[in-house]
Design brief:
The protein has no helices and 9 strands. The chain has about 100 residues and is mainly β.
């Protein structure tokens, strides 16, 4: 994770989970904690930093695809729509205003 990102000490710092798609989303300031059962769709404008907390699969977007595994970190920069294919827990740092 970039040094300028202030992460909470634990997942308990995140708010109540809300059910979406095949999982849930919890938030804490500019952070999202996503728990997905298989496929999760995101839309981002600007930049999001994505850390794979648990799980494995593929991250897909309009121009490509990358495998992911626990511990991986990605920067999604103006990708628009992107999808997680594979169950897991994903920490997203939203650097610009966007929607979940």
């Amino acid at each position: 994770m970039p040094e300028n990102i202030d992460l909470p000490p634990s997942h308990e710092a995140f708010g109540e989970a809300r059910s979406v798609q095949s999982g849930s989303v919890r938030s804490c300031k500019n952070l999202l904690l996503i728990e997905s059962g298989g496929r999760f769709k995101r839309f981002c404008t600007g930049t999001e930093i994505v850390r794979i907390e648990q799980g494995s699969g593929h991250l897909k977007w309009k121009r490509g695809e990358l495998p992911f595994a626990e511990g991986d970190i990605f920067a999604a920069e103006d990708v628009g729509e992107y999808d997680f294919y594979g169950g897991g827990v994903f920490l997203i740092v939203k650097e610009n205003k966007e929607t979940a």
